[in-house]
Every structure is written in structure tokens, then in C-alpha cells.
Amino acid sequence: MPTSEKLPALRPLDVVQTEGPDGEAYFVLHDQSQIAPRPLAVSIASYVALSHLDGQHTCADIVRLYREKVGVNMPAEQIEKLVAALDGGLFLQTPRFETARREFRMAYVAAAERDNRERYSAADELGAELERIIASGTAAELDDVWGIVAPHLDYARGAPCYADAYATLAAALPADRYVLLGTNHANWDAGVVATTKPFRTPLGLAPVDVACVDTLAERLDCEICADEADHAVEHSIELQVHFLQVLLGERPFEIVPILCPSPESCDEAGVNRVQDLTKLAAALRELAAMGDRRTVFIAGADLSHVGPRFGDEVEADRAFLAMIEAVDRSYLSALERDHGDEFLAEFGTTQNRTHVCSAGCIYVLRRVLEGTDFHLLRYHQAVDPEGLAHVTCAAAALA
Fold first, then answer.
1. Spatial contact of 29 and 91, defined as CB atoms under 8 Å apart
2. pLDDT tens, position by position, 152-167
3. How many Cβ atoms sit within 10 Å of the Cβ of residue 264?
4. pLDDT at 314
5. What are the residues facing 257 on neighbouring strands?
6. How far apart are CA 399 and CA 397, in angstroms?
7. What pLDDT score was predicted for residue 316?
8. Based on C-alpha coordinates, what's the Rg of the chain?
9. Strand-pair category, 177-183 with 193-194
10. Who's near 281: CB < 8 A, 6+ residues apart?
């Protein structure tokens, strides 16, 4: 590889610092989309080098930048080996990755179902876990519940909020259709993304209201299923499907799975996605008002993501976590007072400094159900004992 040729860019990845068996620190690269099938661990030296892989630097540039930053030389051959390993692992924006992504998407489109059974416990174990969580919750005494906010954390860390959200939903009238609003972790800059694939889980099959998805596409005048393979490994919706299957048992129901963009993300023209979210909310509100089918809306939403894993350099002590709670509660208070615009304004004011990943689906839920009251049921911080990654969440009901 000529040292004057620009090197390919690193793809958006999750990076987790860990300690190897030799006692040395390593950085583990994870692909949220799972197109890269295995994580890759790199040394601190390699991590410093790959941090300059932005598509604009040559190998010679990185040799120079590494020397300026660290004070020692990294041979060009070592950088080339690192780039080859990253490319082989599908962590770079290269033709190899584009081919793998195309094949991954084609496989999802060709499949009859979206099948997540490999990622979860068997039906009995999973069902028993969710039943225990629901039984531990406190159901709010509300006249009618049209929507809830629940986490998309794993069940163990998000249990307190899952418990209250789904205990409250269990006490409400069951619905025929559940619109599930999630976050697109694998494709942050995508727009509204739906899928028509039924969800096959360890607990059974959850069919999709395909007619509803088609009508939404017409009203939004866009191909909302064009990127439907983004749903393949996305967890924010499937975690809610499991709860619905436990709550409803043999009662038939359909889902409408929709991944919502973040208000801070932009389309290809550089315009933020707020208009897309507002149009989606209006279309969903009109659909819910049509016909005699009871429709309930669920946002699978986490709040702040803080700690070294998310780029924070300060220690996550009690004072820091108290500050995070104050920020979170400012968002939640805005939702209690307003039908979404104040929440969006608050989100913009903070410039998302606490890395909230689900503002889009929360905003859509609040706009769809603008005639209801927002009842905060619980706030929870899932604190990482190792201090690397803390995630906050809330349970709420709209009635």
C-alpha cells in the first residue's frame, strides 16, 4: 500500500476498554449492526493509530501524527497490518464491507421472518423472567392507557422501569395493535425505518400490521422499508415484543415496528430529522383515529449514557450522577408540561451532552398522544460497578 494513498475510514463502532490476561489495557471494537461478526481487540498503541482513520489521512500522515502524540515511531508496516486486520474484520468503509452489508441486507429481505431466538433464553426461562419483573411492578391507577415509555436496556439492568411500565399496561385494556417505536442504533443517520417481517421470538410469532405500514409509507411519501434490514439485530423493539407476548398470552395482536431517527441526526441534504418525526407522529395519530381497532403506542427508550465508554473523562461519582439525573428530569418535566415541542427545545438546549439515544421515539410518542397526560412512573439509573458505562431510563404512561 503506497504511503501517499489515503486510508479508508473507520466505521461507527462501539468501543469498550478492557484488561487483557497480560494485565495490559485493550480496546475492543464492536459493531452494533453485527455485519462485522466478531469484535476485535486492539492495543492502546493501535487504538491511537486507528483514531486517525477518517478517510482523509495517508499512512505517512498517521506515522507523523502518532509520533507527535506519543513521542515514538510506529512503523508504516505496522499501520498497514492494522488496516488489513480492520478491513478483514469489516470495521472499515471499504468495498469488502459494502459487499458484506449488501449480502446481510439481502438475507434479511429474503427471510420470511425476523427471528431473534438465538439471542435469548428458551421460552420457559424468558417467560418466567418477564413474569417476575411484571409482578414486582406497581401499576398506576389510570382510567385509560394509550401509551407507555419503557427501557430498552437489558432486562436485568432495566427491571425497575420495565416493571412499572408493564404492570401499568397489564392493568389497562388490551389492544389489537401495538405501535412499537424504537431507536436505530446500527444506522444512526437513517430516517424512519419500518419492517413488515413478523417477529419470531422464543415466545412465539408476533405478526405485523402490514396494511398499516403500507399506509404510513403512502402518507409519508417515502420508502420506509427501504432500510428494513436495520431491524435485523435492533433490540429496542424486540425487548417490548417479549413483554407483549407474556402479557397477552393467546390473545391475538399485531405490531407496527418503527425505528425513529434522532432529532439531531440529518438527512443527505444536511437537514435535521425533526420534520420527519413530526410527519410520522401526525400520520400515526390519523391512523389511530381510523376504524375501531384499539391502538396502543410503546416507546422503547433509554435516556442518558455516561461514563468513559461514552466519552466522559470525569469520574462518575455521586455528584456526577446527581447532575445526570437533573438533566434527565428536565427532559421528563418538559414531557409532563408539553406535547413534545418543549422536550425537543430542552434537548436542543443541552446539545445532548448526556448522550440520550431515544429522543426521537419519545418525541413521536408524545406528539401522537398529545391529548393525554404524561405520568412519570419511575426514574432509574443503571450504575455500572466498574464505572465505565452508566445508563438511565424511565417508565411512563400516557393516559
1. yes
2. 999 999 999 999 999 9
3. 16
4. 76
5. 180
6. 6
7. 76
8. 22
9. unpaired
10. 340, 363, 364, 367, 368
SS (H, E, C) the chain: CCCCCECCCECCCEEEEEECCCCCEEEEEECCCCCCCCCEEEEHHHHHHHCCCCCCCEHHHHHHHHHHHHCCCCCHHHHHHHHHHHHHCCCECCHHHHHHHHHHHHHHHHCCCEECHHHCCCHHHHHHHHHHHHHCCCCCCCCCCCEEEECCCCHHHHHHHHHHHHHHHHCCCCCCEEEEEEECCCCCCCCCEECCCCEEECCEEECECHHHHHHHHHHHCCCCCCCHHHHCCCHHHHHHHHHHHHHHCCCCCEEEEEEECCCCCECCCCCECHHHHHHHHHHHHHHHHCCCCCEEEEEECEEEEECHHHCCCCCCCHHHHHHHHHHHHHHHHHHHHCCCHHHHHHHHHHCCCCCCCCHHHHHHHHHHCCCCCEEEEEEEEECCCCCCCEEEEEEEEEC
Length of the chain: 399
Kindly state the average pLDDT of the residues 140-157. Answer: 97
Q: Give residue 238's Cα distance to chain centre.
A: 11
255 neighbors 248 (Cβ within 8 angstroms): no
Cα gap 127→160, rounded to integer Å: 17
- Mode of pairing for the β-strands spanning 40-43 and 25-30: antiparallel
Query: Which amino acid, residue 271?
Result: V
Catalogue all structural domains in the chain, each as residue range(s) with its CATH number.
Answer: 14-102 (no CATH), 114-398 (3.40.830.10)
Q: Which residues pair with 6 in a beta bridge?
A: 58
